Amino acid sequence: MKNTQGLHRDLFVGEVATALAADGYYGETVGLYGYACGGETRAFAAGEDCARAYLRDLAAGAALSRPVYAEHHLEDGEAAEAAARDALTRAIADAQAMPARRAADLAPVWDYLARHAGQAALVGAIATLPNLAIDAEARAQLRALAVADDDGRAYHGYLARTGAGWQLRAGANLFALLGHWLEDAGTGVSPIAHVPARQGVPIYKQRQALAAQLAARFDADYRALLEAILPHA
Questions:
Q1: With the C-alpha atoms ordered 190, 101, 161, 50, is the resulting torsion angle positive or negative?
Q2: How far apart are CA 146 and CA 192, in angstroms?
Q3: Are the C-beta atoms of residues 31 and 45 closer than 8 Å to each other?
Q4: Residue 153: exposed, middle, or buried by beta-carbon count in 10 A (0-12, 13-18, 19+)?
Q5: CB atoms within 10 A of CB 141
Q6: Which residues pair with 103 in a beta bridge?
């Protein structure tokens, strides 16, 4: 329960912080989201853009750091972009190491796909799992199943393996959710799934229905597939 409460709090704080920054409440503070990819720093003004790019790079098998957000309070005469990038570079260097990758037998994936063609996109998203070592051929096959990003308003979620079984973690702030997903990866996670949210209706009024849609995506057969391919302690 404590972890779930922390997740909801972080997602809410992330959403509020985004709104306050857009309205100028933070004054002379600059910030960037980003991560290291193959030794280079990738920087983004928006957390959503950072998170989506991060998942694409994971699917491609790139060597990544954890994604971070860094902000800097400007002193007189400082160049905003350079100061923000310096802060981001330091935060990336201090970030926790990524989960170790372990080899997996993906034969159950293809068996599952043959029986559940409608779940092709969620099968393809297995390429993003940060703790699986996937060879180049299998990765290419998985990526071919993926669907193009939908930049519209969405609700996101994944399953985390706990002592009480699989539990759904979900929220509208993809960047915040991504951080929790990476923390949970050591004990086992599903890929992050996305469902579209209705326009013109506050997320909090849709949260229960959207969470139900996500849970339906991760049915019993898909949970069994995860158990078959994910490393066990």
A1: negative
A2: 12
A3: no
A4: middle
A5: 18
A6: 133
If one counts every other C-beta atom within 10 angstroms of the C-beta of residue 29, the result is 13
Residue 160 backbone phi and psi in degrees, to 5:
-115, 135
From first CA to last CA, the distance across the chain in angstroms is 22
CB within 8 Å of 104: residues ≥ 6 apart: 132, 133, 134, 229, 230, 231
Q: Are 176 and 192 in contact (CB under 8 A)?
A: no
**How many residues are there in the chain?**
233
CA gap 189, 53 in Å, rounded? 19
Question: CB under 8 Å to 149, separation ≥6 — which residues?
Answer: 52, 56
What whole-number distance in Å separates Cα of residue 50 and Cα of residue 192? 15
Biggest alpha carbon–alpha carbon distance for the chain = 63
Q: Which residues pair with 42 in a beta bridge?
A: 35
pTM over 0.90: no
- At 23, list the tokens: 């309205």
| Per-residue pLDDT in tens (0 to 9) along the chain, 233 residues | 445 445 544 544 455 445 444 544 344 788 899 999 998 999 999 999 999 999 999 999 999 999 999 988 877 656 777 888 899 999 999 999 998 899 989 999 999 999 999 999 999 999 999 999 999 999 999 999 987 666 678 999 999 999 889 999 999 999 999 999 999 999 999 999 999 999 889 998 999 999 999 999 999 999 999 999 998 76
Rg from Cα positions in the chain = 18
* 159 beta partners: 168
